[in-house]
């Protein structure tokens, strides 16, 4: 028979949950899966920028800086939203609601990574890119998380600017400029964001209602949300091929944007006519594939010399 002393039992009971946190819990604060698409679009922005990359070492350092900036945004977002994350099934298992990481530590991590990322990018990509990265972090945390998210159903429309800036940051890191073609990439992601997140909000309406977040389905209803998804999908599919008119894209991108756009529209139309939101999950999943595929094609075109 194994005996457990009172001191051993007391010690087990007195250990705060956050003292047993593992490195994976702190890594989860950076939302690596969610932020990976932003990092990828930033990398593509660097590759498609005209002219040779000044130094691959600096390019790698710039990519690391942008990744740290994305992680910093996520950590600060989790810190600010820690009061509502525990109310939603989708976010209840995050490190702060679970008690594994104190909110204050998430805030500290976010601040340190923000400063480090901007400093590194200033060294490797220049002050313009670093300034844009600082704006991206500030916009996501202050404008979107603190002011828009809990106040207006247009939170995702306006707040989408933060997620659309990474390719512009990457472009600026290589060229030191942000011409119209860089903003064309911004426009693609900016218009893509509402139908992407509104499809998710149709699936998670109960979560947002429990947390008091005024997402479009909770404020205007499912039917209005489905119509808005359709309208933005049309705008997206019309916008995406226009990038082929700039030197950063070619015929392969143009063809891909049309084919993928047709499927996006088909899914959005099916959702629009659905009374029970059937197809929302499919559209949400496809929207991720859609954006990733378009930026992957841009990457392939530049490596294969098909662009321009």
Structure, described:
With 308 residues, the chain is mostly helical. It folds into two domains: 21-178, Orthogonal Bundle (Tetracycline Repressor, domain 2), CATH 1.10.357.140; 188-308, no CATH class. It is 74% helix and 0% strand. It is built from 15 helices and no strands. Helix 9 runs antiparallel to helix 10 (180-203) and helix 13 (222-239) packs antiparallel against helix 14 (251-272). The radius of gyration is 21 Å and the shape is flat. It starts with 5 loop residues before the first helix and ends with a helix. The model is unreliable at 1-15 (pLDDT under 50). Its main location: membrane. Belongs to the UbiA prenyltransferase family. Protoheme IX farnesyltransferase subfamily. It is a multi-pass membrane protein.
Topology:
Blueprint: H1 6-14, H2 23-28, H3 32-48, H4 56-80, H5 82-85, H6 103-125, H7 127-148, H8 155-164, H9 166-175, H10 180-203, H11 205-211, H12 216-220, H13 222-239, H14 251-272, H15 280-304
Summarize this entry quickly.
74% of the residues lie in helices and 0% in strands.
Give me the oligomer status.
single chain
Strand content: under 5%
> How many β-strand runs?
0
Total number of helices: 15
CATH topology of the largest domain: Tetracycline Repressor, domain 2
Share of helix, binned: over 70%
């Amino acid at each position: 028979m194994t005996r457990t002393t009172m001191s051993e039992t007391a010690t087990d009971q007195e250990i705060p949950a956050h003292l047993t946190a593992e490195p994976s819990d702190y890594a989860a604060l950076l939302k690596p899966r969610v932020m990976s698409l932003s990092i990828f679009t930033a990398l593509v922005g660097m590759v498609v920028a005209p002219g040779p990359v000044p130094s691959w070492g600096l390019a790698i350092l710039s990519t690391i800086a942008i990744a740290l900036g994305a992680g910093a945004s996520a950590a600060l977002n989790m810190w600010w939203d820690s009061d509502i994350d525990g109310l939603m099934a989708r976010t209840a298992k995050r490190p702060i609601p679970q008690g594994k990481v104190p909110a204050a530590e998430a805030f500290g991590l976010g601040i340190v990574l923000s400063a480090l990322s901007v400093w590194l990018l200033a060294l490797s990509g220049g002050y313009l890119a670093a300034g844009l990265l600082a704006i991206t972090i500030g916009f996501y945390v202050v404008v979107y998380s603190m002011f828009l998210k809990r106040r207006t159903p247009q939170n995702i429309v306006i707040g989408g600017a933060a997620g659309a800036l990474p390719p512009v940051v990457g472009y600026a890191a290589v060229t030191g400029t942000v011409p119209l073609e860089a903003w064309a990439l911004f426009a693609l992601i900016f218009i893509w964001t509402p139908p992407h997140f509104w499809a998710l909000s149709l699936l998670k309406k109960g979560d947002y209602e429990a947390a008091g977040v005024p997402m479009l389905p909770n404020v205007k209803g499912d039917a209005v949300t489905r119509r808005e998804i359709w309208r933005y999908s049309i705008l997206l599919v019309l916008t995406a091929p226009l990038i082929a008119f700039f030197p950063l894209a070619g015929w392969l991108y143009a063809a891909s944007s049309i084919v993928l756009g047709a499927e996006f529209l088909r899914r959005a139309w099916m959702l629009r006519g659905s009374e029970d939101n059937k197809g929302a999950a499919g559209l949400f999943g496809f929207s991720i594939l859609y954006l990733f595929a378009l930026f992957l094609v841009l990457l392939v075109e530049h490596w294969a010399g098909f662009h321009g």
